[in-house]
Every structure is written in C-alpha cells, then in structure tokens.
Fold this sequence. Notes:
- It is a single chain.
- The protein is an alpha+beta fold.
- The strands form two sheets. The protein has a seven-stranded mixed beta sheet. Strands 5-6 form a two-stranded antiparallel sheet.
Amino acid sequence: MPHFPRAELDEMMERWIRANRDAEESGDWAGHLGPFYAEDAEYRWNMGPNEEFRARGLEEICDVALGYHMRGFERWKYPYRDVVVDERRGTVVAFYGQIAPLTREDGTPYEVDGISGSRFEYAGNFQWRRQRDFFDVGNVKSLFFEMAGAGVLEPVVKRKIHEQARGGLLPGVIRLRQQPSICTRVNNFLAMVRIAFVG
C-alpha cells in the first residue's frame, strides 16, 4: 500500500465527517458521500451468517449502498466517536454510533449497542478505494425487534425485513456459501435445543 502524508489523511477524515453530518441533515447520503469514492471503489459489509453486501464501482455504491440500503434510515445519526489513522498503509479505522431519530417512553434513544465502524483504504485525491463496515448484527436485529414491537419501524424497513424473511436477497447481497438443506438447519436447531436444556 502507498504511503500518504498524515496531514492529508487527517483532512480526508475531517471532510468525510463533515459530509456525513450534512447527509444526516439532508437525508441525501449519495449526494454528500458519493464524491468521496474513487470510480473503481468497493464497499462491503457483512449481513450475518453466510450473507455479504458488496458494491463495486462508484455508480453501484451511490445507487445501492448509499441509495437503496439507506432508505428508511435517512434521519438516523451516525456520530463518529474515534478515528485511528495509519498513514504508512493509507488506512483508517473509524468507530461511530447508529442512533434512530426516535426515543423510547423513558426518553432514551433507540441505538444499536456494541461496536460499529468502518475500515477505509485511501486512494488519494480525497477519495476512498475500499470501505468495509462492521457492526454487531445480533444487536441490530434485537433493536429492530424492539422497534417493531413499539410500532416505530419505517414502512420501507419493514418491506426489506419481509423480503429477507421470505428467503430473498436484498440488492447487492450475495451468499458466501451454498445454503444448507432444510434438514440440516432443523438438525442444527434441535442440537442447540438439546444443549440448552440438557447441556
């Protein structure tokens, strides 16, 4: 990986965080963040067991990652809490929150617990070559269950969950391995039930 000046990477992150705040205010994630990706950039994140999101190229990143997958989350906040820069490798690891624009009856916000963040590879010219997000999938699902019970999930988010529950893949999502058979999945589930009750 090429070496980049530390000051340039620091400025890149300042610009990036500022653009994120602008996107939070406007809801236009592709418009504000799109210019920060190189034409041949790649954006990925894990969706849970055996599923991975992957967008290749600027157009796909804007249309699918920052477009389709941000529908229903336009008003969420993603405050950056820590940034680690490695100028020798041209990489950045950043940690941030994921906070819904709604609060519980006790006044606390709906927020994803655990660790959320991104690993970036810098391409130069104030653009990213690669981005890989990471977050606690179990905590995301737990929050969505809670929000569903409270009746506050956005309709578009409910449609996405419905599509996944039917076995469909959302745009950009691929399976990493062949799906196990129904018999195998039932056997695995029963094995865990036996462990839970018998040990």
